[in-house]
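user: can you give me the structure for this one chain? tokens are fine.
assistant: on it. calling the predictor now.
[tool input]
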Amino acid sequence: MLNLFIKLFIASLVLFGCGEKKVTTTAVVNKYQSTSHFYGKVEPDVTQIVTSPVSGIIKEINHHPGEIVSENDWVVVVESEEAEKSLLGGLAKKANLESKFSQVSQQLIVYKELLEAGAVSQNEYDDIKHKHHSYQYEMVEVNHQLMKICPMLSDNLCQQPLHIIEQALPLKLKIHPQTSGTLSAIEKENPMERFKSIKQNEGLFAVSDMSRIKVRILVNDDEINLFHNHQPVTINIPAQNITLQGKVISSRPLSDNNGQNQFQVTVQSDKAKHAIRLGAKAAVILPESNSYWIVPRASISSSQGHPQIEKILEKGQTKVIPIKIIKHLGRFCVISGPIKANDLIRNYDSSQPS
């Protein structure tokens, strides 16, 4: 009797079913239009740090952070006792070497004639020739050291007689950038200021080429698939009413305080006609032509770990289409794959009654 009861119970389960039964319906593929703007701040593509060639004190400031400067503009004036000693010592050494070099050059001509006449030995001639080369090398070294200072002096001061140079003391060096761009301070807490003491090779200011910019944006982990390297984007700077075209150049994972995964995406603009303001707010906009589609989450199945959907063809036939899931939107997903808007697909909706 017990065996008969068990058999009847199993038969009832088979007949009436156990649990929910999925109902196959159809769904329509819709075009995904990204309306999200990803915001960041304008950063320079290339920044040059200008350092002080000497130790000294900042005496004058001609341009301030935020201004656009060229390589012909002097930004600060540095007064330097170290530069004075180096310049005066270098000029005195140069004058002495030039005098010796001139004398040895004349000797070399004479000794060459004497060598041909047999009046001096080859060793004696070689000694004079060695002195000539030695003085020549020292002059090159001295000129190299002077060229670190002379271009920063006004009115070709290095070409003037020594007494004129002494009248121009204390020496004032005008520091120029080596490129055009937007001027900025190196440290926010310690900006350029008058009478500030600086050391040799210490950074004075930065010049950023703002004709091409970068923007870094934060992207959630469910949105990172919207971006890939070299992908074209639009960059809008509202404050200047400027719109640029650009591309994604990198992305890297981050981790915020809540343990949620985020990504930092960096985009780079094409060359701009006008200088862009450093630190300005910028919106990064994805192109509308991206081939992304919205489908119900229940329409996506998996084969060996690869997502797919089933496209409905004519006469009730179907075709399995491999896809890539870009983003989850609740009961829907943003996907990419070889489909188009208004295609019909199978939807395995377990929420519908059987």
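assistant: here you go. The domain at 22-33+291-349 is CATH 2.40.420.20 (conserved putative lor/sdh protein from methanococcus maripaludis s2 fold). Confidence is low (pLDDT under 50) at residues 4-21.
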